[in-house]
């Protein structure tokens, strides 16, 4: 008798999970903004992967004869102060910014999520310590923290990645901790504890899946933020160093020619904008589609 | 209320300690001799020895930290490696400029962001809402430094209405503060929209409507007053974003503020000044959040009394 | 004065629909109700049967879209659905007021109790701030809140659930409404408090000469408070009767099921006399069954129940039933 009830329960549960997924997809598909974001992102990733095919030349090789040419048929986006194709550098730059964003968010995820889980689930002394460190880091919000870290670590791609990534750790800790605190009180977690399930199993089997939704949304938005921050460091000249084609760095060096050749600074900015926009659109769409509350 | 203020003041102590530790270990994480680092590349052997002795770098680490705290309490952060002026003097001179920019920007942000968010929440899924939400999305996706440069291209180069940079008349303030405000306006508008949507769907809003109150009273007195609590919090948090953005905006417009100082110091490896600027940014942020929490208690009776 | 004898509120063919992405939900589907002066009409049904939506439709408190309200709601001869925004606002809180289910969330947490009551007074009566405040303190006294003067200056979170519901009642009655819509006013409260609130409402109804539409799923409260009852199922009326007749002789199988599921003190629970439950669940509003909406759960279905909706049959004693069993009896 009990067994049959249990079987039915799991079946209905499975069905409702399927239904949830189905509803999620139909909601996401209906969200035109999210779809546009996904499309932009796809374009961005394809550009990064196929950079050598899309621009066969060397994007870093100077050609001073062609310095600061305005956009033309041959050079659709013009050339920079060293006569390099801006289009080519933007295409290769997509690799750099995507790499930094992925690296930075990985740092944030890999350190922030476990610390947030521990802080929220175990509480007590470890929670107290983690929270104090988080508070201190949050006293230097985002970009300033990255700036301070670059001051210590020095310039360059790897350091930009680490600096931006460390700034994301407290944000992940806070998010995950909040979710864990609310999930921890749920009946199924109580039940799992009551039957003596080990903490590690509860954390990974029961709590983590429930925290995945906000983490996914957050990660999409964080990717956009990482690109912005990395570009900001590049713009200030303390991020990725030339001649590596990086959008922020390109903008920074184009700044000097803003009066006579504004295209040098304009186009890399549009590239940054569209990349960040794609992640933000997608993040918003995911949040709306995953939000369980009734919405029209 | 007093109890709440005291509790809130005490809660800043761990953060202050955290900041002091961060500043203290920042130098020691750098490769090489801290005394050498602080003195700068141009320093003579005598300078380095003098600093080593002054900071007690030849003593154990915990003694160094205590000495450091003592100097911190007196705002004594040594001298700039570049200009040889006291750090506090360098930082202090730049602070009002950044505050001016940040103040104008946050005012602009509240003035435009909150009404835009309210309009959007009151008329959801109309063209007005789509206009606000998509503009806001553009706003949070745009790099500040690029926006600043584009504004320079349009208003300084093409139209020649406003100066491209520097400080002077009120005209100099417009472009940098608008640039700095853009992200925050967008963020506050988004936040206001979502919290207003939330409070407008609450039971007490239906109660207010069921009493026959005018829609404007329902929206402002009943829904907005509740939404203000999270909005104020976000404005406070956004002040931090603003300080970060100030670094970039000040660079674009050659605005002689703290942000520009910190970038110049990083490029010149002028660590005493970097430390000083970071300290001031941290303190500012704590101060703003303290003020926000007090406003919060003023708005929300639940906090005021418990 | 000419209207004095007729019903205070007449609802004809009320149809409230919600347009959602999944489809159109007919929350209320062709409802006819009359509320007479001075009476308490009980509106009974399971959650989701459309009883709360009916109340919200009367005051047009549902956001349109997604909601769409059709039909006629005649209050003192005027159709509330024809009024402009200002017109319906003058009715809300004035002639018709409402009490909600959740006293915890229905009061605004950032405004004092006094402010929330006196703003209603200032809106509908020509009162100064001071007059409104004085009247508000009187109202709080009337609903038996101890220390009304100091309580009026407090925020809702300082009051218990029962006290908040008393404040809600004070607010709803402050402008002498002719009709009070009470949507599960005691569901969220402790049982002992429930009785107190009900007694208070019964007393104040007499004092204020108001009519009440009492929405609840609790038949005990209905037995105590209501003079007539309308039973709703899946957006439709299934049975209407004076309260005594309904309890004595329920005609619709759904009403019979509802009455069978309440324990009666003194009745023995041995073998044959078990507490009855209605099998099954309320139908999905997007996939209403064909014919009678109750047919999947009805113990006495006939072939016609699956094909055609039952007509509303008028019986003696001002009773109405919507069921094929009664319709067939009539034809015989």
Provide a descriptive summary of the structure in words:
Chain A is an all-alpha fold. Helix content of chain A is 76%, strand content 0%. Chain A is built from eleven helices and no strands. Residues 1-14 and 292-296 of chain A have low confidence and may be disordered. Chain B has 306 residues and is mainly α. The longest helix of chain B is centred in the C-terminal third of the chain and has 38 residues, at 215-252. Chain B is flat and about 80 Å long. The mean pLDDT of chain B is 86. Chain C has 332 residues and is of the alpha/beta class. Chain C has helices at residues 51-58, 85-91, 103-106, 113-124, 129-142, 148-151, 161-173, 191-208, 219-225, 243-248, 253-260, 324-331; strands at residues 9-20, 23-35, 40-44, 67-75, 78-79, 96-99, 179-183, 211-216, 228-233, 236-242, 312-315, 319-322. The mean pLDDT of chain C is 83. Chains in contact: A-B, A-C, B-C. The interface between A and B is large, with 45 and 47 residues.
Defining traits:
heterotrimer; A: 296 residues; mainly alpha; MetI-like fold; 11 helices; 76% helix; disordered N terminus; C: 332 residues; alpha/beta; 8-stranded mixed sheet; 4-stranded antiparallel sheet; globular
Please give the structural blueprint.
The complex is a heterotrimer of chains A (296), B (306) and C (332).
Chain A: H1 2-30, H2 32-49, H3 51-54, H4 86-122, H5 124-138, H6 143-153, H7 157-184, H8 187-194, H9 199-236, H10 247-254, H11 263-290
Helix pairs in contact in A: 1-11, 2-4, 2-11, 4-5, 4-7, 4-9, 4-11, 5-7, 6-7, 7-9, 8-9, 9-10, 9-11, 10-11
Chain B: H1 2-10, H2 12-29, H3 34-39, H4 45-54, H5 61-73, H6 87-122, H7 127-141, H8 144-158, H9 171-200, H10 203-210, H11 215-252, H12 258-268, H13 271-299, H14 301-305
Helix pairs in contact in B: 2-13, 6-7, 6-9, 6-11, 6-13, 7-9, 8-9, 8-11, 9-11, 10-11, 11-12, 11-13, 12-13
Chain C: E1 9-20, E2 23-35, E3 40-44, H1 51-58, E4 67-75, E5 78-79, H2 85-91, E6 96-99, H3 103-106, H4 113-124, H5 129-142, H6 148-151, H7 161-173, E7 179-183, H8 191-208, E8 211-216, H9 219-225, E9 228-233, E10 236-242, H10 243-248, H11 253-260, E11 312-315, E12 319-322, H12 324-331
Parallel strand pairs in C: 3-8, 3-9, 6-7, 7-8
Antiparallel strand pairs in C: 1-2, 1-4, 4-5, 9-10, 10-12, 11-12
């Amino acid at each position: 008798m009990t067994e049959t009830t249990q079987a039915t329960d799991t079946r209905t549960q499975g069905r409702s999970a399927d239904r949830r997924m189905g509803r999620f997809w139909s909601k996401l598909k209906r969200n035109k903004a999210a779809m546009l974001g996904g499309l932009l992102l796809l374009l961005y990733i394809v550009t990064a992967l196929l950079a050598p095919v899309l621009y066969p030349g060397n994007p870093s090789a100077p050609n001073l004869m062609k310095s600061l040419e305005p956009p033309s048929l041959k050079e659709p986006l013009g050339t920079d102060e060293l006569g390099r194709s801006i289009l080519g550098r933007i295409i290769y730059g997509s690799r750099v910014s995507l790499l930094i964003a992925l690296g930075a968010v990985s740092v944030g995820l890999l350190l922030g999520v476990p610390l947030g889980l521990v802080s929220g689930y175990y509480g007590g002394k470890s929670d107290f310590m983690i929270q104090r460190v988080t508070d201190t880091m949050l006293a230097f919000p985002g970009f300033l923290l990255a700036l301070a870290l670059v001051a210590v670590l020095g310039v360059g791609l790897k350091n930009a990645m680490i600096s931006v990534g460390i700034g994301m750790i407290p944000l992940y800790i806070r998010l995950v901790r909040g979710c864990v605190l609310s999930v921890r009180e749920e009946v199924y977690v109580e039940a799992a504890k009551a039957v003596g399930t080990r903490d590690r199993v509860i954390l990974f089997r029961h709590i983590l899946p429930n925290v995945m939704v906000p983490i996914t949304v957050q990660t999409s938005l964080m990717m956009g933020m990482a690109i912005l921050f990395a570009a900001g460091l590049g713009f200030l000249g303390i991020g990725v160093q030339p001649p590596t084609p990086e959008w922020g760095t390109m903008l920074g060096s184009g700044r000097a020619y803003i009066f006579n050749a504004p295209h040098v600074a304009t186009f890399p900015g549009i590239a940054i904008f569209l990349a960040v926009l794609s992640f933000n659109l997608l993040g918003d769409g995911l949040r709306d589609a995953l939000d369980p509350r009734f919405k029209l | 209320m007093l109890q709440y203020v005291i509790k809130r003041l005490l809660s800043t102590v761990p953060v202050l300690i955290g900041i002091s530790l961060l500043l203290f270990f920042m130098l020691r994480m750098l490769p090489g001799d801290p005394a050498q680092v602080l003195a700068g590349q141009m320093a003579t052997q005598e300078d380095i020895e003098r600093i080593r002795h002054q900071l007690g770098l030849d003593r154990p680490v915990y003694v160094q930290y205590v000495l450091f705290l003592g100097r911190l309490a007196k705002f004594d952060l040594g001298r700039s490696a570049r200009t040889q002026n006291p750090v506090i003097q360098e930082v202090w001179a730049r602070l009002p400029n950044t505050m001016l920019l940040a103040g104008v920007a946050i005012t602009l942000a509240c003035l435009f962001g909150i009404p835009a968010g309210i309009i959007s929440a009151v008329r959801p899924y109309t063209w007005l809402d789509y206009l606000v939400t998509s503009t806001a999305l553009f706003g949070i996706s745009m790099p500040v430094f690029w926006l600043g440069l584009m504004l320079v291209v349009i208003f300084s180069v093409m139209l020649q209405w406003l100066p491209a940079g520097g400080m002077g008349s009120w005209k100099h303030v417009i472009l940098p503060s608008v640039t700095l405000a853009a992200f925050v306006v967008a963020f506050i508008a988004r936040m206001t929209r979502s919290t207003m949507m939330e409070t407008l769907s609450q039971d007490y809003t239906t109660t207010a409507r069921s009493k026959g109150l005018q829609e404007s009273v329902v929206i402002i007195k009943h829904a907005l007053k509740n939404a203000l609590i999270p909005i104020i919090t976000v404005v406070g948090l956004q002040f931090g974003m603003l300080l970060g953005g100030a670094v970039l905006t000040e660079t674009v417009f050659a605005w002689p503020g703290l942000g520009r100082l910190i970038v110049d110091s990083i490029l010149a490896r002028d660590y005493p000044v970097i430390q000083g600027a970071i300290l001031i940014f941290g303190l500012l942020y704590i101060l703003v959040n303290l003020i926000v929490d007090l406003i919060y208690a003023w708005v929300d009776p639940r906090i005021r009394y418990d | 004065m000419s209207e004095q004898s007729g019903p205070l509120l007449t609802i004809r063919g009320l149809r409230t629909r919600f347009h959602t992405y999944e489809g159109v939900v007919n929350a209320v589907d062709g409802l006819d109700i009359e509320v007479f002066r001075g009476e308490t009409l009980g509106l009974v049904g399971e959650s989701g049967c459309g009883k709360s939506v009916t109340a919200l439709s009367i005051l047009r408190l549902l956001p349109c879209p997604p909601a769409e309200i059709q039909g006629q709601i005649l209050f003192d001869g005027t159709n509330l659905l024809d009024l402009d925004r200002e017109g319906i606002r003058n009715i809300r809180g004035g002639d018709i007021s409402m009490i909600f289910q959740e006293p915890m969330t229905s009061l605004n947490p950032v405004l004092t109790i006094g402010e929330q009551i006196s703003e209603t007074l200032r809106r509908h009566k020509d009162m100064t701030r001071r007059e409104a405040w004085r009247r508000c303190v009187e109202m709080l006294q009337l609903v038996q809140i101890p220390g009304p003067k100091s309580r009026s200056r407090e925020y809702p979170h300082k009051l218990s659930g029962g006290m908040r519901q008393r404040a809600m009642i004070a607010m709803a009655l402050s402008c002498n409404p002719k009709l009070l819509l009470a949507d599960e006013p005691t569901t969220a409260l402790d049982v002992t408090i429930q009785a107190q609130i009900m007694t208070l409402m019964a007393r104040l109804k007499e004092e204020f000469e108001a009519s009440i539409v009492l929405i609840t799923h609790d038949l005990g409260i209905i037995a105590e408070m209501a003079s007539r009852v309308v039973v709703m199922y899946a957006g439709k009326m299934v049975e209407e009767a004076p309260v005594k007749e309904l309890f004595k002789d329920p005609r619709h199988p759904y009403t019979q099921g509802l009455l069978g599921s309440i324990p009666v003190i003194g009745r023995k629970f041995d073998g044959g006399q078990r507490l009855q439950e209605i099998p099954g669940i309320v139908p999905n509003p997007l996939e209403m069954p064909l014919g009678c909406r109750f047919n999947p759960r009805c113990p006495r279905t006939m072939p016609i129940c699956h094909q055609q909706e039952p007509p509303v049959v008028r019986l003696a004693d001002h009773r109405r039933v919507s069921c094929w069993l009664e319709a067939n009896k009539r034809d015989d």
